[in-house]
Amino acid sequence: MDTTADGTPDAAHQGQRGRQERRGRQGQRDSERGDDREDERGRDAAAGASSRRAPGPYSGVGALDAAGIAVLACSAVWTLIAATGRAARPEGALLALLAVTAGFAAGRVLGAVLPVLAPAAAAVTVLALVLVPSSRLSGGSDSPPLGYANADAALLVLAVGGACCAAWAARGPVVRTALWLTGAGAAATALALGSTAGFAAGLAIVLCSLAAARMRGRLLGLVGLALATLLAVGGSYALAENELPSGLSQSLTGQLTQPRVDLWHQAVSLAEHHPLRGVGPERFPDDGSAVPDDAPSPISAQSAPLQLAAEQGLPGAGLLGIAFGWLLCALWRSPRPTPVVLTAGAGLTGLAMLASVDHVLGYAAVTAGAGFLAGIATARPLADDLAP
Fold first, then answer.
1. pLDDT tens digit sequence for 172-206
2. 0.85 surpassed by pTM
3. In the chain, at which end, N or C, are there fewer CB atoms within 10 A of the end residue's CB?
């Protein structure tokens, strides 16, 4: 080794050795960074595999759709079985199934493409059909759109649900407020038509929609809606069988009218005598006892579950309950936000409660509207697929 006169290492040699040491340290750092990048890529790959294995928000939707198709098919087949060998008329029930299927398909498609505009336009259309005719609010029973105030109120209840669903899907406080006011206006219109029950249902939907933002999960809310529907159906049955306390029974009978309760009692009696196939679709007025002249409707039991039990037996009524349960499960697994889901669930529950005390499901427009709202609430907007 070269040294200077005093024995110290040569300066040039010291500089060369320093450069070698620096290159060695740099190479070590580069090697460590490479190892870190390899570890990071490994973690990313593991996370990606884990996310593919984990159940996503849309898992099980295909199976639920298949189950819904099976329920509709079973309902149609059972309607034909209940009508076999009798002078029955299954066309009305089949038309209702076709209407709800078509409405659901349209809601799924339009809800995916136009999640805000589709329900908002449907709500405004219903309001226009109800309000535009000059005789609509004057009490004309033959005025459009459906010619029956309670059926029009049922459409307005669905319009409230559609407007509030659009409000939650919209962006901007001004648009949301306008849509909520549209829903409140639809509820007030139901009251103007003389339907207190429709107004109460519409107001409850608006309040539920406003409160939905505070719900952390949708399951508890959907269970509450299911219990409310079960209470309405069970209450109508108990009232028909006079199993409620006398004071409560008299109060409810006074509000619902005695002829309506008599029709419910007739439907329960027919279901007890014909528990398997019932008396046949649309044969309730033929096989029931004499209907009073002041009855609300001589061709209906004024309750969808009780009429199905009378005309198609317990399996027919059970299929209706299964269909509603499937709807709640579909809402539970829906990819839409929880406020939209709970708002739609409240709207459909309001319709179910009206159908338990009136024959509003006998109108194809109402059943199609129910299917449309359900389709809107279970659709997967295309914007979700396009988002990074």
1. 999 999 999 999 999 999 999 889 999 999 999 99
2. no
3. C
Of 347, 383, 345, 387, residue with least CA distance to 112: 383
Q: What is the DSSP string of 220-285?
A: HHHHHHHHHHHHHHHHHHHHHTT-S-HHHHHHHHHHH-HHHHHHHHHHHHHHHHSTTT-S-TT-HH
CA distance 334 to 315: 28
Q: How far apart are CA 236 and CA 233, in angstroms?
A: 5
Phi, psi for residue 302 in degrees, rounded to 5: 60, 25
Residues facing 3 on adjacent strands: 9
Query: What token pair was written down for 214?
Result: 């505070």
What type of residue sits at position 125?
Answer: T
What pLDDT, in 10s, does the model give residues 111-121? 999 999 999 99
Mind listing the pLDDT tens digit for each residue in 76-123? 999 999 999 988 999 999 999 999 999 999 999 999 999 999 999 999
- Would you state the pLDDT for residue 55? 37
Amino acid (1-letter code) at residue 306: L
Residues 6+ apart with CB under 8 A from 295: 259, 260, 262, 263
Contact indicator for 291, 276 with CB cutoff of 8 Å: no
Tokens representing 149 are 């105030």
Any alpha helices (H) in the chain, and if so which ranges? 11-53, 61-83, 91-113, 117-131, 149-169, 173-192, 196-211, 219-240, 246-256, 258-273, 284-287, 304-332, 338-355, 364-378, 382-386
Three-class secondary structure of residue 9 per DSSP: strand
What value does the mean pLDDT take over residues 301-329? 96
Mean pLDDT for the chain?
84
